[in-house]
Amino acid sequence: MAEWNAYFRNEADGEGQEEGEQQDGDYKVSGRDCLVFLVDASKEMFIKGENGEPTNFDMTMQVVRTVYTRKIISTPGDLVALVFYGTKQNQDPTNSFKHVYVYHNLSELSAKRVQQVDELRGDKGALLAAEKMGSDQTSLSDALWCCANLYRDCNLRLGNKRLFIFTCKDQPHGGDSAKDRQARTKASDLRETGVVIELMHLMKAGGFDVSLFFRDVVSPPEDESELGLQHEPCEKLEDLQRRVLAKEQKKRTLARLNLCLGEGINIAVGMYAMAVTTRKPNAIRLYRETNEPVRSKTRTFNNQTGSLLLPSDIKKAQVYGGKQIVMEKDEVDAIKKFHDPGLFLMGFKIMEKLKLHHHIRPAVFLYPEEGEVKGNARCEHGCKHQVLYIICFSSTGSSCLFSALLTKCIEKNVFALCRCVSRRNYPPRFVALVPQQEQTDEKNVQITPPGFNVIYLPYADDLRNLDPPRTPSASPAQVDKMKEIVRKMRFKYRSEAFENPVIQQHYRNLEALALDMTAPEDIEDLIMPKVEQIDGRLGSLVQEFKDLVYPADYNPEYKPAGKRKAAEAGGTAEKKAKVEVSEDEVRAHIQKGTLGKMTVPMLKEACKQFGIRTTGTKKQELMDALIDKLAT
Amino acid sequence: MSKSKSFHVLCMDVGLSMSNSAPGEESPFELAKQVIQKFVQRQVFAELKDELALVLFGTDSTNNPLAEDGQYQNITVHRNLMLPDFGLLEEIENQVHPENQQADWLDALVVCMDLLQTGIKGKRYDGLNIYFLSDLSVEADSEQLDVIVENLKQADITLQFFLPFSAEDESMDEADNERRGGPGARGSGKGLSKEQKTGLEMVKHIMLCLDEQDGLDQIYTLRNGIEGLCMFKHIERRPMAWPCQLTIGSALPIRIVGYKAVTEEKLKKTWLTVDAQSNERDHVKRETVFCLDDDDETEVQKDDIVQGFCYGSDIVPFSKVDQEQMKYTHDGKCFAVLGFTNQNLVPRHSFMGTQAIKIFAPSGDQHAGVALSALVRALDELKMVAIVRYAYDRRTNPQVGAAFPCIKLDYECLIYVQLPFMEDLRHFTYASLNSKKFSPSDTQLQAVDSLIDSMMLMEKDEDGDLKDLVKVHRIPNPEFQRLFQCLHHRAVSPGTALPPMEPWLAAVLDRPDVIEERCRAPLQEVKKAFPLKVVEKKKQLKTSEQIFGKDSEQPDAKKAKGDTAEEELEEEYNLADISEGSVTSVGSVNPARDFRILIKQNTLPFQGACEQLTHRIDQLLGNKNTQYYMKSITCIQAFREQSVKLGKANLYNSYLQSLKGSITNRGLEVFWDLIVQASISLISQDEVEGSSVSKNEAAQFLLAEGKNEEPVATMEDDTGDVDDLLDNM
Lengths: 632, 729
Description:
The structure holds 2 protein chains of 2 kinds. Chain A is α+β, with helices and mostly antiparallel strands.
């Protein structure tokens, strides 16, 4: 038992020290990510659908809220702003733009903000909106300018900057070419400063024509040959949500590596984590009086002399076979070094050779390194933190080879076996590069990207020898009955469908505390089986199946403890037999004072025989009880 | 439950004949000693509770419990059954020498059996093993042979022989195939003395009596032994049963038992920190103090610290007690089916967690077995999986996961793996690779095609069976192997440098020779078909710092402090903000910022500010140094940005044009390349209405110059500086 527990306790504590490799790559190096929601709040956004469908504005707020709460959990350091344009009232830090309303300035998210977004939703929101918003005057140029100011006035070092425009008007200025031109200029200014502008266009009667205006506003797609804007406008909340979420996070590499096919043939690739276990965040320490965070300082010193120990005063040791073996710190590092970082191709294997249960870690994704060939000079707001990225290699050739490799691996149904050293001084792991074809949905939104999934393979040490119990197989009739059950409970699995109840509860609790709510919002435990529904659906099938497999006197609801006994039936039965003790024997022992020679189970059995009720399990307690009883 | 253990007796012939060898070859004694050393090493590092004894025979002296009346002479129990340690290794190294007597090897075997039988009295044991190393060159008294065999059988002792020669051609071939690439055994059956031949017959007789089928497989050559033992033992963990019920709805439970089948094994021991002088662990003391984040770093007592969490930018105090009370709770142990879905909806790469669990029916429970089998088979035939809620127990977090059907020849089971939660997913989109830019030509595809064919790791052997050349799950974790090798080296020869990696380990981590040979030509084809430029990596000093820093100390403290680099920058910027008010002219420290502030404050006419800025740029450019070039570029960018913002393009455009004109005179080619790379061009009509430059002209402006030069080459020369600059910031 100990082993399972130990493992899970680690997980429950959420201290993923071992997860170093799975952390978000170079997040720290590149500054804070910012996201500005620029939402059209003109009259058209508030038109209700025919069948009482939510307004475009309502839908947008729903998405904004989702992003807010998600970001608080997954990337709390990101900066987010919410700006409306086409409003009646205006509000911005400089008060210089008409019809622009900065609802949330660019900063970290908080519980308050989530609440404020909630206020804009539903009927209450509609009222509020009618008062402040829903103008027919729009100047996208002013709105963009205002956003540019938000970026500029932010005192933090900014990383990736995104701007999402939500609108259902393909001609925001109603065809006023001067205003259109101004807006385009402003947009290009923003793009110039490294802001990526995405359009989240919503449904409107008569369709949304991107080419009328917005094509020149948004950032060109990453892939130049693709027009990128063939997306249909979003009609449903899910579509919009999916689209926003897909663009919302900046891709970050875990590692940039070379995939080496052989001497001098290297493909520059990036490794991406597509799924990272979200854990409850670590607690922070606060000073009781003021609730301000405290820092910790750790010192290492020699307790003989009291002097501080520098790294050079320390060595590392392990004890084996009764002997302490000492090494220098750099020797410890050197032992772990086998190869330089990179992926080295060993060869190829047919897909069937990849065993399902050979699973030790979540997979990562491999895609050619997007070294945009053009020198990309990004000017941040302040010159002091000017970061100039000049990437000096052309990756077209290696992307092409990557693409060829992918195509051929899919065609031949093979995977590539590679030796992988993901970082310096990491021992090698073998990985399977499993090809994945690009898939898009009917709206042309990417569902699976093209590239290789990297599956980590276990070493011999990682496999455990099991001794599978021999049990009989089911008959075709039994299998068929089970098939009926399975078919009744069929559903379409989507990985987004299940929220982690532990994490959700934790954040609801925090939310409640932060907002002084009396009780946290209830969460729905989505990974709880819907027992009633299942029972209803299966109906009589369950009983029919049970009649087929279980005899009448069989009770499958045995307590687990009993189960284990059954599992070791042979051994236990024998032991039980031994436990029988005769009264004479016990008396003899007591007389001779040799009661201690009897084992605990024997003593217990003896207690039972003499009708002694004992709560204790300690040997001495049992012995005392027996002596008390039989001595009289 | 106390784990039971195994008992091993190593029995080695150190008699006269063991030292005989052909010139240039290692004597049987040397080989046997190596086998023993390797074996003990493995035991020491595996840290099992197994006990081990060493019996030597052919010794000059006699020391064993059975020795009386001239019986059992020249047999020495060097070490009785106990846990192996480094002391034993040292003794083997220093005290086991070839000696000058001979002893009856059957007698020695009897001594070993006796040792085991007395040693295990009253102890629980898993297995009793005798490893027998001898050249069998002394005629043994075969009278007792049957009694000995009977005793071995009764005591359930397994026996392995390690001989200097092979027992039989056919049987050895098989054994050889097992260990890949093992050099053949020496002279099989040839050149054996009469004693050895009869000895061998007796050995075979014993082994066949013990195990009719595979008995002969337990006779190894000494060389085989060394190869077989060269790797350190795999970590073996006892699988722990997890009894539970699989439930479908409320009315259909099936009793199951789960076993962890695959998980990344870690070493139990970690590095201790010891004082470099004394090598004492107790001398190193670590102390953590807490302090406020103020100027004085006021220290805070541990009792005055409460726990809190971040909710976005909010810091929420949340005591452990409250947290415990409010946290998500559940009913504990659970393996409940939520529903069934198609297997293809649960792709391999979506697996989460760090383990695969195999789910069986409890052994002995036939009905559960049948019920589970029905489920496994139904899922297998329908190509579906069960999506389940899994919770190990009440204290651990529940998971969602998939249970796949698995049907093997001798058993059926479900394989459970964890699946992601919504919170875990990252939604990234990647550009399609089908675009023209990346699409490979037919020749290129052909080259890759033949490369794959040449590198298939599946080989047909003589029998036509497919053989896997690299079985990863048979390779021992190289990290452990190397660590043990180094630890062992340090323990037995302190003061010397660590040895290189063992050749066999290096070999299994590399491409098999056959493949290496076969793919050479196709690789050349690929190289020709795809012109690849040398990829120069950006220097990532930071990353390596993180790596080195990681091991050192206090990762937690660091985390709490956040990114220090970032903080520094923030601080600097705030300072800049404070001093913002006093900017009256474009200074030389941060001209671009000054310029922006001046424009923003509107204290100076636009033209005046521009003149100040261009003056600074020209000053900076006089220095001909990358660092100043970078600064100039930021200035020009600021110039452009502000000009566009205010809709005044002419000043900027004319300055840039004049700058371009003076490049050659002023020797600023390198600088111009940077401008081109950063695509800082003229302001076109599209951006500012008043501009006299068309979009096309603006684009051409940079291109025209680029053609004469070799921007790529220059760029590469410069990168070092650029990166250094980045690192300095």
